[in-house]
Amino acid sequence: MAHPIVSQLMQSEDPVIGWMALNRLVDTPIRLVEYNQARQAMVESPRVRILLAILDAPDGLPNHPYFKWSGGHWILAMLAETGYPPGDQRLIPLRDQQLDWLFSKNHAKNIRMINGRVRRCASQEGNALWSQLELGLADERSDQLAERLMEWQWDDGGWNCDRNPDARISSFMESLIPMRALALYAKKTGSLDARKAVERAAEIFLSRRMFRRKKDGTVMDQSFLSLHFPCYWHYDILFGLKVMAEADLIQDPRCQEALEILESYMSPSGGFRTESRYYRTTRPQLSGYSPVDWGPTSKRLINPFVTIDAHWVLRRAKRLVNFQPI
Predict the structure, then answer these.
(1) Domain boundaries, given as residue ranges, for the chain
(2) How far apart are CA 295 and CA 277, in angstroms?
(3) Backbone angles phi, psi at 293, to 5 degrees
(4) Which residues pair with 289 in a beta bridge?
(5) What is the pLDDT of residue 27?
(6) In the CATH hierarchy, which fold is given to the domain comprising 4-316?
(7) Per residue in 47-96, pLDDT tens?
(8) How many CA atoms lie within 13 A of 87 on its CB side?
(9) What is the pLDDT of residues 110-162, one digit of tens each?
(10) In this structure, what are the phi and psi dihedrals at residue 114, rounded to the nearest 5 degrees?
(11) Residue by residue, what is the 3-state secondary structure of the chain?
């Protein structure tokens, strides 16, 4: 039986929250008319309209596509994160702007080979590939992104943009999103090479139990144990576990400690809170601005987006299967 909070989320006044809960947390059959109504409400919601306002700029698409967090690169990522229905041709200008940047000569200058390892912020290509696949916008250039990611993968399975010649360990921040993208690419294309790359990348996280150092078992970064939405390119255990679940690796026993910590964060109501965030909703001219607010950052109020993600992960890990309401 699903937790009662699922019904609350489905009945949210925000159509995006209702749509996400419907798609991710409901197992029972949904009438087609209800599904279509929820889908249409999501597409026409105030939150989505604000995100898509970038398409109506009088002088064309503003800013660099990677401008944090209001550039087209991030708008596509957030639409994908919320389950925006695929195939919307209005998004093609955003996709093309993103790809023009990633395949430009200027961008190529940031791809360096140092001491036999490609130094690259691969989360950029990873987010582009993942969002294009999710949003039904992929073309032959998406295949090229996947090929680049596999070509740039380090010996230990991940990616890193550290230009220190002695750097030899992949970055959590730069490895999770490429892994996520290649996992989806492998599912959609059947690529065995991509799947092998995913399994290699997973070891970066699993060998560290999702948040601990190998050498002494200490916590790598305390922020990893906080919950956030969106994470953008940052890492926390919820985002890490979410990607493991998407890659069908959540049953690996090395996820268990992180799952137990996540489960311990659930409030009596079934909700999850986030006490910090990586964006602000003021000063849009500066980097770090989000055109929409992604829910409460509070010690008291639950965050619906974090709650949906956490419930989905715990269900995929079969940790909420035997829930019985009080």
Answers:
(1) 4-316
(2) 10
(3) -90, 135
(4) 280
(5) 83
(6) Glycosyltransferase (1.50.10)
(7) 999 999 999 988 889 889 999 999 999 999 999 999 999 999 999 999 99
(8) 1
(9) 899 999 999 999 999 999 999 999 999 999 999 999 999 999 999 999 999 99
(10) -130, 125
(11) CCCHHHHHHHCCCCHHHHHHHHHHHCCCCCCHHHHHHHHHHHHCCHHHHHHHHHHHCCCCCCCCCCCCCCCHHHHHHHHHHCCCCCCCHHHHHHHHHHHHHHCCHHHHCCCEEECCEEECCCHHHHHHHHHHHHCCCCCHHHHHHHHHHHHHCCCCCCCCCCCCCCCCCCCHHHHHHHHHHHHHHHHHHCCHHHHHHHHHHHHHHHCCCCCECCCCCCECCHHHHCCCCCCCCCCCHHHHHHHHHHCCCCCCHHHHHHHHHHHHCCCCCCCCCCCCCCCECCCCCCCCECCCCCCCCCCCCCCHHHHHHHHHHHHHCCCCCCCCCC
State both tokens at 145: 């992104």
Q: What is the token pair recorded at 60?
A: 């064309």
289-293: average pLDDT? 98
pLDDT at 225 over 90: yes
pTM of model > 0.90: yes
Residue 5 token pair:
């909070």
CA 151 – CA 174 distance, rounded (Å) = 15
| Residues 47, 280: Cα–Cα separation, whole Å | 16
Q: With contact defined as beta carbons under 8 Å apart, do 39 and 87 qualify? A: no
C-alpha span between 242 and 237 (Å, rounded): 8
